Structures are given as C-alpha cells and as structure tokens.
Q: What sequence folds into this?
C-alpha cells in the first residue's frame, strides 16, 4: 500500500482526497477495524456496517473491540465474528495488527478510548483512517473524517460509503447495523438528530433493507426482569433531584449492582430518565466499578456536559452526552459533583 496517498482530512463538502481513498478501497486489502471500550450500539453498528461493505469489495476484514458488547447488541448481523481483546492472547492480538494493511478507527476521538488496545494502536505503523463524530483534539490517524454535527459514527460511515460510490454494496445486514448505530446514539432519534439529512440517511437505509422494527425491539424491549427492577430501584430509591441546580443524579454502588445480578449494559440509558423531569437539564449516572467510579453525563440544550466531564471527571464527549471517571469512593465522586455544580449554577439557570 502506498502510504503517501494517505494523509490529511476528508470533508464531505470538499472533493480533495476522496479519489485517493476510493482507489485504496477498490483494491482488496487486509483491514482491521477498531472501536472503543464499553462498546455501544454506534461503536458496534458502525464497525459491522463498514465490515459488511468492505467484504463485498473483496477485503479481508477483522473487527477488534477491547471488551464485550452489551447483550442487547449481540443479535446484530456479524457480531459473532467480532474479536474481543479480553478473550484472546496478547500474541494473537498483535498478529492482527502486524498482518493488517490498513486500520480504520470508528466512533472514538482519542486512542485512550481503546483501553487495553491503546498501545497496540499507538505502536501500529500501518496507514490509519478515523471516521468519527466527536471533536478530535489529538490527530492519531493519517486520514480523518470528522463531523461533530452528526448524531453518530454510523451515519458518518454511511455518508463515507455514499461518497465513495459504494451505496449499492450496502445490503440489509450493513443497513441494519448502521441504522442500529444511528438509532442508539440518538436515543431513538430523540437527541442529536434535529437536522434533515439524518432522516434522508434513515430513509435510504430502510430502502436498502434495514430492519428498523427489529432494531427497536431488540434494543429497547429486551430488558431482563433484573434490569427492569434495577431501573425501578434506581429511580425510586436512588435518584436525587437537585432543583436548585436543575440537575439530578443516580448513584449505583457495586452492592446495588450485585443485588440485581447486573450484567454489562444493564444500566445503559438509565441516565436519560431524569431528563424527563420538568426543569431538570443535567443528569448524571454514577456506577461504582472495581477500581474507579464511572460517570455518564447527559444534558439538554446548550449546557456543556463534555466540558463539565473534562474539567472535573477526566472525561469528555459531546455537549449533551459525555462520560467521565473518578478515582475514589462513590461518596467522594458525588461530593465532587455537588461542589462542581456550584461553579456551574449560573450556566444551568441560563438555559431556557
Ligand atoms: Mn457514537
């Protein structure tokens, strides 16, 4: 592969670079697709959607993820062939990096989001392409295609394929994976989706065979009884509303999770519920992990959840959806959160 072909930024609105990238993809290569730890529907959906199309172009494609996908995603076409780092020897993982000819990163804006795969990516000297919808502060790939205005990386992948004139290679499997990514990252087209183009993409994907009803059913209506009861407990016993800050939080200890036989992905989406309360515009879910406290942050309007997460909880993300972490106890994390709210009180009240 000619590395020199492969440098710079791609932009949907500009023509530069696209021909070179297309030329790269019409010749079969060994491609490695990577996506972030704690993979969500967009991570898995964008990776799988891309894989299905690259297979049709004759590429050899492997997807490696740092850790398992939650159970509500395992039905996605092709998921059974996704390689999970934690389930393989380090040796076999490094072989994938050694043998591939091109690395595609999807749905993450810093190698840190790869967790245990971070080092492998940083060391890898193969040409790298990033497709993402997060703002990127550190360029870590040769080529990047970024649009923070888009609701999901899966939508970016669709537009990427369309721009490369590969739309007709998107079959029902790829279309379903990409639509699953779009639907999950926008919480069923409720957030980050107030622009007309997203519905054009959704329409095209449905025309290409995406099974929208199945996505909705598998993602939203497949709660285990334990998960449903954990949600009830979280809202009834565990949610604290702070009207003076227009904020609310849920804090789940390891014990809480154990009591409800918590499985990966069970708390997915819980953070959105407090935002349904009138006058609450900022919601945080704390979950106690083995060695740190994990935070999910959601906001409405212009309140910058990402900035808040970055400033106080080593995190980041989008304005309305961010993540963070805290080293210390659950109580200390909540304490830090409550005092940080004081700094943001004015901003929280400025929001209409
Ligand atoms: Mn995403």
A:
């Amino acid at each position: 592969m000619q590395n020199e072909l492969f440098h710079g930024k791609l932009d949907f609105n500009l023509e530069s670079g696209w021909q070179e990238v297309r030329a790269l993809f019409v010749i079969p290569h060994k491609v490695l697709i990577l996506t972030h730890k704690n993979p969500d529907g967009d991570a898995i959906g964008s990776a799988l959607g891309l894989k299905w199309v690259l297979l049709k172009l004759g590429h050899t494609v492997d997807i490696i993820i740092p850790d398992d996908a939650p159970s509500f995603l395992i039905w996605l076409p092709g998921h059974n062939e996704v390689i999970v780092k934690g389930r393989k020897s380090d040796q076999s993982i490094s072989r994938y990096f050694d043998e591939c000819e091109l690395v595609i990163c999807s749905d993450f804006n810093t190698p840190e989001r790869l967790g245990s795969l971070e080092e492998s990516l940083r060391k890898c000297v193969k040409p790298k392409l990033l497709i993402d919808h997060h703002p990127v502060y550190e360029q870590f790939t040769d080529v990047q295609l970024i649009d923070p205005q888009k609701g999901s990386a899966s939508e970016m992948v669709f537009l990427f394929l369309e721009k490369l004139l590969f739309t007709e290679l998107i079959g029902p499997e790829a279309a379903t994976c990409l639509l699953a990514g779009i639907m999950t990252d926008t919480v069923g087209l409720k957030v980050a989706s107030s622009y007309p183009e997203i519905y054009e993409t959704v329409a095209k994907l449905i025309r290409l065979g995406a099974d929208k009803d199945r996505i909705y059913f598998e993602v939203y209506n497949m709660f285990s009884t334990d998960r449903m009861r954990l949600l009830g407990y979280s809202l009834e016993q565990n949610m604290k509303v702070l009207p003076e800050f227009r904020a609310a939080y849920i804090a789940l200890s390891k014990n809480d999770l154990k009591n409800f036989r918590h499985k990966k992905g069970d708390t997915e989406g819980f953070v959105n519920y407090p935002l349904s309360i009138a006058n609450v515009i900022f919601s945080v879910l704390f979950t106690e992990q083995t060695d740190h406290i994990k935070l999910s942050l959601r906001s409405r309007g212009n309140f910058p959840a990402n900035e808040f997460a970055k400033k106080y909880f080593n995190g980041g993300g989008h304005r309305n959806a961010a993540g963070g972490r805290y080293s210390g106890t659950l109580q200390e994390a909540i304490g830090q959160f409550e005092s940080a709210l004081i700094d943001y009180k004015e901003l929280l009240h400025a929001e209409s």
Q: What stands out?
A: The chain has a mean pLDDT of 95. The domain at 3-220 is CATH 3.90.1640.10 (inorganic pyrophosphatase (n-terminal core)).
